[in-house]
Predict the 3D structure of the following.
Amino acid sequence: MTAWATRSLRRLRHPAVLPFPGVHTGCDTASRSKPGQAVETGRLVIANGSRSALPDFTTAYPRLVVFNVTARPEVLAQRLATRGRETEDEIRQRLARISLEVTGDYHVVTIDNSDSLEVSAQAFIAALHELYCGTHFA
């Protein structure tokens, strides 16, 4: 995260940015304890997780807001090609089979990450500020 983004997050009321292990591979009881305690005390918790884990997160955190960070397919293809781990055909197949949509009964905020990191970070922080300082978390 850029220094600008970090400073902007600090301006929010009582933020707690808590990365915790196990989110990407599935949550276990131990990894839920610290974020759960933070949520119970009214603090903000930001976690990176998989769309497939959303039902578990919703059960654990009823006021969950999903930030669906996406990019245009051509931008994703370019970024994947830059990594150099997949062939052009593998990238095309990968993009054909994935969905960037969040389906289900969730409060979803979509952030278009097709532009620069700075632009995407500004959009993320503006949406987070609106939610956290607005009525959703009041």
Observations:
- The helical segments are 3-10, 29-40, 54-60, 73-83, 88-97, 117-133.
- The first strand starts at residue 65 and ends at 70.
- The radius of gyration is 16 Å.
